[in-house]
Design a protein that fits this description.
With 164 residues, this protein is an all-alpha fold. Helix content is 85%, strand content 0%. It has two domains: 3-55, no CATH class; 62-163. It is built from six helices and no strands. Helix 1 (3-16) packs parallel to helix 3, helix 2 packs across helix 3 and helix 4 (62-117) packs antiparallel against helix 6. The two termini are 46 Å apart.
Length: 164
């Protein structure tokens, strides 16, 4: 048998305790154990260790539990506050989008008339139109980016730091 077979048997043996093996993998593992006493012994040792660990009772101190609960409540309140803070941004973004969709033809026509009346080159007044047209959306995006919630990784790091 190859080194790969033994490594695969060890990996499947570990996964078998989580009941995450398919039928094909279980039959392959059983066949491998029939031909390999070393892997079978490792599996039995692993099985004995897991059964011993299942009998061990682990309890956390009341200070640790209370500190963790307090920190989780604080993180939940911070998340709720961030969501409340973002609601006006979403509303203004929706309003700006609807406003842009409704006023585009009128704004285009006004830039066109003004550009021709003042003899401004077409490219120049069209670029000015785009700048004015995108300003509400870009402003909303900038504010949303500035007020965005922190990534989930920071919250979990804070929780680990609070419980350590």
């Amino acid at each position: 048998m190859s080194r790969y077979d033994h490594a695969r048997a060890l990996e499947l043996s570990s996964r078998s305790f989580a009941d995450s093996l398919g039928e094909h993998e279980q039959s392959w593992l059983a066949g491998h154990f029939e031909g390999c006493a070393n892997c079978r012994a490792q599996h039995e040792d692993l099985q004995a260790a897991v059964s011993v660990l299942k009998t061990v009772s682990i309890s956390a101190g009341s200070d640790l539990v209370q500190g963790t609960q307090r920190r989780i409540r604080t993180l939940c309140m911070q998340t709720a506050a961030r969501q409340r803070r973002m609601r006006p941004i979403w509303i203004s973004s929706a309003f700006a989008s609807v406003w842009m969709a409704c006023t585009t033809p009128y704004l285009w026509q006004s830039f066109d008339v003004t550009g021709h009346w003042l003899h401004i080159p077409d490219l120049l007044w069209q670029m000015a139109f785009l700048a004015v047209w995108f300003t509400p959306a870009l402003t909303g995006a900038a504010v949303a980016l500035w007020l965005r919630p922190q990534p989930a990784g920071n919250a979990s790091r804070e929780l680990v730091r609070a419980t350590a």
